[in-house]
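Researcher: Re-running this chain for the archive, since the previous output was lost when a drive failed. Same request as before.
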Amino acid sequence: MEPLTLAELDARSAELDRAALEAPDIDRFCSSSSWVMPAAAALMPPGRPWLLAGADGFVAAILRRHAGRRIVEPLEASWGLASPLVGPRAAPLASALLDLVRAREGEWDLLVLSGLLVDSQLLGAVARALGRRYRLGAGPVTRRHVASLAGGLDGFLSRRPRALRKSLRQAERRAAAAGIAFEEAAADSPAAADRLFDRLLAVERASWKGRGGVGLDAGEMRAFYRLMARRLAAGRRLRLLFARRGDEDVAYILGAVFGDTYRGLQFSFDDRWRAVGLGNLAQARQVALLAEREPEVARYDLGTGGEYKRAWAERSIDSIALVAGRGA
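Model: Regenerated structure tokens:
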């Protein structure tokens, strides 16, 4: 495998994305260029890239300092979703990683390899490769919630709890009474994505998250999502709906399509319309559009966190961080 700079990895984003789509044991979207490159640029501290590319895929890691310790981790290490090993076969990636960390053994204190699915071939191969030489431990579990889109909107709703279906019907009636309707917002270039993102930010600032300083309109998160939206638009993967009342945006739902999966990213609504139930309604409308126009999209990955997500998903997918240290 050949070493790369971050700029060279960026130039090979399409290859990284193909490798992610072929990888069976990782969060494909959050290991793709649309996620890891914006994270490295906007969210994470700078570091020294540990990047390799070859016929078997990519090692996409970086050496950063945290509290005085030299830690090798994925390009995105905030949520524990990105895998630093991206490719279809576990054994050659584990071997390439071992060669890399042995060659640079004096440069690091810990390896934190997140985004490895529990009980996967990739986790097993990496643990076997590193365990012969280094001390191993496990970080916390990261859980994603995933729903099937089989059967279109009707099938999706049939698998939701009765209380959720009832609340959606009520939200539809309240939205109609308030004159609120949803519309798609398409972008196929960074400039078009920026214009839509500015609209989205206006909604975010009026939301409870924006008013509480925890929305994506704040600082690093704003930069991260803007960069992501540009990439998604350029790759025609951006999926964005706005709820509008007359000429005013009052809610949005932002997501991405990657392979056979719709990945939900963020949704929010103007707090003046909290009683309508626009968050749930936005998700249902997005599912309906996917079923109508993109039947090849088979599942909805809601991501991590949020107790409400249990009601929207049939199953969970757990990953961990494998931690390796030098010395006895």
